[in-house]
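Table S2 (continued). Query chain:
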Amino acid sequence: MEEFNASIGFDCRLFRHDIRGSIAHAKVLVKAVILKEPEARRIINGLKEVEKEIASGKARLTPELEDIHMAVEALLTRKIGPLGGKLHTGRSRNDQVALDIRLYLKDEIFEILDLAHGLKRALVESAEANLDTVMPGYTHLQRAQPVLFAHHLLAYYEMLKRDTGRLLDCLERMDEMPLGAGALAGSPYALDREYAARLLGFSRVTDNSLDSVSDRDFAIEFLSAASILMMHLSRLSEEIILWSSQEFGFIELSDAFSTGSSIMPQKKNPDVAELARGKTGRVYGHLVSLLTTMKSLPLAYNKDMQEDKEPLFDTIDTVKTVLKVYAPMLRTMKVDRERMLRATGAGFLNATDAADYLVRKGLPFREAHEAAGRAVAYCIRNEKSLEELDSNEWKALSPLFKEDIKDAVSIRRSLNARKVYGGTAPDSVKKMLRLAKKELEKGAC
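Corresponding output:
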């Protein structure tokens, strides 16, 4: 039963936050005239010694201690005697754990934001280094229209911007201090909860004691934001895996971020990208796990909620691990500009430009689309590209095609034409790069 009931094996990572909350609670008890100043000093000094002992591994955290809250209290009492038992006055493990998880998750989100900032910077740096690199843009994984590789990378920058925003939103709703809610009904002592919130760096206190101890929305919201972040990294991973294949050959990953085959000496496997893609499912699973745990719990605290920590902890570890390795992988990848450009020249990526040419001559787009389609079909039959057609061939397809059609369907002209805000024209992409660099200068948050 001890082994089944205990959470000390995984919630031990909360020890610093538990001690931080206990130090603040001791100060609140002094203000409530429950502890005397000398007693509080002894308790606080004892807690700091316990923190050092746990951090160094000197203190043994065994299953009979049940959880990190009981472990800290037991170690404190061994150190300073019965006075340690006074610390739990006016609080419950229910509001204590709600506080610890919030403190812990706040710290971890700031670290994740910092790592995401590093990845955003790597994307911008790679985009800036490849501002003149042209590649095929795809829909349905079929070559569609030419785009700048920098534009493609900046699409992922936009995704990470939204991820950052979601994490900051999550922090905003998490920034409530639950200590003082007791087991469920609130404390009978005159505890100054606002004072505790200031000591612990919260902007406000929770408004309802029942909700305070039974709320795990903030953890679920984080897992949701983390799942979306991992989905974005998985999409980028999929593209890196495709681009590094011999079939595409657009990029080459550094040996430091690839592995070889145990049997085939020629292989260079994109394991970092594959693992990031695979770990995305793990994070999704944790979100569903906690949603399922919470879906039918009556108020207030239930032991089921002990199952919140392992999904949360593993998600944090997974997201941080992927972000740490992703930025240096992008910074060290080599881009084959010529291969990308050759791929852009095949597949009639400029067919839409032929249609747009006719639209500018006054033809309705649907008719222009049909004429451009006839041009593509003609090229396929005659094994030519659109750029290789001469003036007579163009005019045979539509009398509206004039001598300047050859310039209109050039890849560079196609890129330059898409100068709408947010488009792939070089000037537009340069503008987006300048904005991105300004945003990065403001910092991770």
